[in-house]
Design brief:
single chain, alpha/beta, Rossmann fold, four-stranded parallel sheet, three-stranded parallel sheet, 9 strands, 46% helix
Length: 273
């Protein structure tokens, strides 16, 4: 495969002292409901508020001096933007972030707070990505893709090692899927360490490309409609992530906006991260 356990272990060393090894928290109520111990990996406590800095730092730190001098660019509606901005700031690299026009103001302000230049362009994320590629070609920026990049995947995969270091008897890991970078990394790490672990991916049914792609045996774009889960609303399969998901993921579950919404969370204890 494109990413190996050795790549993820190297990323872990690269990130040592840079990121937070986030805690794993017991969920007593959910454990009672399902009749088994359930825990949450608290990446909301990570620097910049999500797991995205793991992959971003792993990617940017490996650029050549010349590439760092030219700067990096990324397209994101929020979390990846902040992860790239903070990683670039740590490494003294200029970052330009293209956000779609619907990006939350709080995330735009936070991204600028990490020193990045933020440009609003595109009514959907795909348009923002296209514009970021234009600017990358024009200015020589290095593209830091949100998920379809081996170094990004390896960085996100460090969570898999952390989970099994803390909870070696883990039998099932459930991961939300947008573009598949986080699941690709965690699944590669977990299945390489223990092939018996069951990997379950969760997608919002309004933007689900994984299940139809699995069933067709080839990349199938999602029939995209608006969803409350804007952070994982990705229309197209990743060229790198899709083969990894097909290799390591055991099951894909699609959930509706009603199931994802806060009222449903309180009623059903549905977990989405």
């Amino acid at each position: 495969m494109a990413v190996t356990l050795a790549d993820i272990e190297a990323a872990r060393e690269r990130l040592r002292g840079i990121i937070v090894s986030t805690p794993i928290i017991d969920d007593a109520r959910l454990s009672k409901e399902i009749g088994a111990r359930a825990t949450l990996k608290a990446e909301s406590l990570q620097k910049a508020g999500s797991f995205k800095i793991r992959g971003a730092y792993n990617k940017i730190s490996q650029l050549s001096d010349e590439e760092k001098k030219r700067g990096v660019i990324a397209a994101s509606a929020g979390n990846h933007a902040q992860g790239v901005a903070l990683a670039a700031q740590m490494l003294g690299v200029k970052a330009t972030i293209i956000c779609p026009e619907f990006a939350p103001l709080t995330k735009i302000i936070a991204t600028r707070g990490y020193g990045a230049e933020v440009i609003l362009n595109g009514s959907i994320l795909d348009e923002s990505i296209a514009y970021s590629r234009e600017l990358a070609a024009e200015h020589g920026y290095t593209m830091v893709h949100a998920f379809d990049d081996e170094k990004i995947i390896a960085g996100q995969g460090t969570m898999g090692i952390e989970i099994l270091d803390a909870e070696p008897t883990t039998t099932t890991i459930i991961v939300p899927i947008g573009g598949g970078g986080m699941m690709s990394g965690i699944a590669t790490a977990a299945k390489s360490i223990n092939p018996k672990i069951r990997m379950i991916g969760v997608q919002a049914e309004n933007s689900s490309w994984v299940k139809p792609s699995f069933e067709a045996g080839r990349p199938v774009d999602a029939t995209f409609t608006p969803t409350i889960a804007d952070g994982i609303a990705v229309k197209k399969p990743g060229e790198i992530t899709l083969p990894i998901l097909r290799e390591y993921v055991d099951e894909i579950v699609e959930v509706s906006d009603d199931e994802i919404a806060p009222v449903s969370f309180l009623r059903h204890r549905t977990i989405v991260s």
